[in-house]
Records
---
Amino acid sequence: MSSSSTPGPGLRYPSNKKTIYDRNLNRTKNAELSRAAFAYLFIEMISYAQRGAKDVGDLEQRLNNQGYPLGVRLLDLLLTRSANPLSSIRPTRILPLLQFIAQQLYRHLFGRPADALERSGSDAAQYMIFDNEPMVNTYISLPRELSSLNCAAFVAGIIEGVCDGAGFPTEGVSAHSVGEQEAEAAGAEGKKGAAMWPGKTVFLIKFKKEVLEREEILARGTSG
Amino acid sequence: MSYYFTIFSPTDTPLYTHDFGTSRSGGDGIPHFTSSERALAPFILHSALDIVEEVQWGASTSSGSAPMYLKHIDKYANNFVSCWITGANVRFLLLTRPRDEALGLSGTTGGSRGSLAGGRSGLTSAGLYNPSAPATEEAVKNFFVDVYEIWVKTVMNPFFHAGNGDIVKSPVFRARVGAAAKKFL
């Protein structure tokens, strides 16, 4: 088309003349991506993160960083999709936020809710989201020298992005395989769980002190 | 009626600013700030951010979720500030400067040229501008809802990081905000 259709210098339209502002935020239900395509991409992402990574911790941090911006964006996207935009609401307490992660976010990413959501008994600032079978780990088998790696660190990064974006800064979200020792410590039931779900992963979310303080002040207002 | 609209990042950096006038009831869409008012507007909006932080977490009795639309939150001199806060803590602040007549400053109280937001329907019986009148709140809310939709589309861009203070430069975005303003304010 002629240059008169361009409103300003430097702005280039895509060939179909549709800017991001012309697209719909809502996707139809069956617009899911193929798992093979995801697995292929994810393996490329891991090998990209592996390049120059010093150790397992560094590699997990790199995967975490790849997920983080996704989380910040998904927060806003899912909030617009879940509710009627005219009554837009956002989570302002820890529990609704975690439920948002375990339900809406998980459903959006993996098509099912997370398997469990718990608060740590020893540390009040720590919450745990359990995933019996992380989809991202489906096609990953770890070599012996990387046995402590859990590639669900990518999902942990997404969760961290959601928490941070919503105004609940964390000390970090990390993904851990629920190992033998933890299973034993949890007793017979835990052992059975580990046997049934060998890939069981827990996402540890540790909120910063100020988040808990704020939560306490807000809760105190209720009674007083 | 003149409006001054700014989007603030979670770290209080202004990412987008737009000033416009009312297009309702014969308004021309051009802001009529005096030069000193215009210079003061950014300061008023920045000071309103403190109020946003006070009210954004909702009442203590809330069930753990709060609406994004915080309604009218602050007033300074003749300027009224309304706020919308997104899930990712990006604040939309709209400063409204009603006409002098609507503030009762000049003798005439003719509401004939008022806008929908604070025009005839938004005026109290005395003809004064009332920021919490239902018609005013609804008009501002509709404006925010439209801006919110295009804002979400903006942040979906993987190369745009609101947290890093990336400024919205897209002329399409500006045109859309202008259209929303023309439609509702």
---
Amino acid sequence: MHQYTLAELSRLLHSKAINSVELTQHYLNRIKQYNTRLNCLITITEEEAMVQAKKADACIQQGKSMPLTGIPIIHKDIFCTQGIKTTCASKMLDNFIAPYDATVVSKLNIAGMVLLGKANMDEFAMGSSNENSFYGQVKNPWDETRVPGGSSGGSAAAVAARLTPSATGTDTGGSIRQPAALSGITGLKPTYGRVSRYGMIAYASSLDQGGPLATTAEDCAYLLQTMAGFDPYDSTSVEREVPDYLATLNNPLKGLRIGLVKEYFSEGLSAAMREAIYAVAKTLEKEGATLVDISLKRTALSMPAYYVIAPAECSSNLSRFDGVRYGYRCENPHDLNDLYARSRQEGFGEEVKRRILIGTYVLSAGYYDAYYLKAQQCRRLIHDDFQDAFKSVDVILSPTSPTTAFKLGEKTKDPISMYLSDQYTLAVNLAGLPGLSMPAGFIDNLPVGAQLIGNHFTEARLLNIAHRYQQLTNWHKQMPALAE
Amino acid sequence: MSVSPEDVRTVARLAQLAIAPEAVEDLQGKMNNILCLVEEMNRFDTKEVLPMAHSFELCQRLREDEITQEDVSLSAMKLAPCSEANLYLVPWVMPASDDKTRGE
């Protein structure tokens, strides 16, 4: 049953060939069997899942269901879930039970989805390997000595291992796309403002965006259809109609102009990765697309600008964790400052503290103009480069990450080498664009991800291209041995 | 630009992080590596470039001044590590001579 896609499961549920209770029980059994090995989930919500599954079956019986009714899902543990622990993979929130649902959670609840549990992740979404979790590292189901990517590593690994047909993630610099690539699944980071951030614990507010992870583009389209839309509770949510993402999935690709960015294929990228991405381009070209060489000449600015802006926003957002109103509090503080400083020192992990320190430094008196203002100016240059590019192409095709999944512990000592894993994804967040990663082959038996980048609010086009590509290839159908 | 051990201690104080003295050197090295990466920005002239805080030029949305959400202060208060009579309890700000840890 776990080898079906979300779309197939929806059809099976609605034709009453299967019911949600048996489907949910099947996935819960798989989670029990494999979660101790992979560590994808922080919390398993078995009781809640069975209640939701019974309710979903009743809805289907009564003809009151929606396409996602009865389908299991796992939420990244960054989304607040009322009455269920929401930890952000941090000791700081180990005891935090959210008093309300995130808008994404409540929309998917209303659609009748069944919550299997909360996914492991890099603490406060800071990381690219899922090794920065208070609850331990997540393992890649393709090779358990390797990382699944991050920060939505638990979500990606769970989908790849077929412990769930769908998951939510968040993406601040590549945190949906990079783990999707390293785990061999499909993940979509929507345009900034397309999906509500209400109830999504903030890391870098001008960059964070929630999105779906699943095995296929079609499944991501189903999920985005429900997740997207204006939310009055999120002041950065965009008031704009949500298109029918499913209606355009099969549109022909004739006339599509695909940009290949010369800076993304420069030295440093392995020949095997370059070939895999060019093979995607050739497949799409055969479908009627035109390939265009382009340049994003300020690409080199992405990483420096990101590592000023994201830590700056992080230092501000995470100042709320002070040991007073909720979360971790240190033992026996001797005064108020000691309470703040020791609660934060003991409650946050190393990478989070490093980013808070960098953020505090770049925002401090005397350094603001040299770092933060400069980074915001660079951000505009990056944005302008993309807008220039989109005058001559419709989408950009690139590797999602420069390498396949790397070994656990390989990059933990050197933060900069870890940051390079996101070198093709960061700019997309700085410019607020949508980006999708889809399976595009294998190198040494490890999945390769290809990234499609579109202009603002072109999610339908990205899903359409990925869906057409998945009609022509079988990469997305490959499964790790434990799912076969 | 690079940070000194004293800079690390100052920033840690501003960030309310009780960094252990023996961790300062390692943090200094890692912060300097990140700042070195960030220096790459200076290769580009941005004198005439308008800073961009957001990917869209968003303006703050206004709404009617009316209650839109129920009061959740009581349920939020239940999450506090230490509270009494709907008040968050913290240690004394000004230490008292005989009872410095009231509220704990």
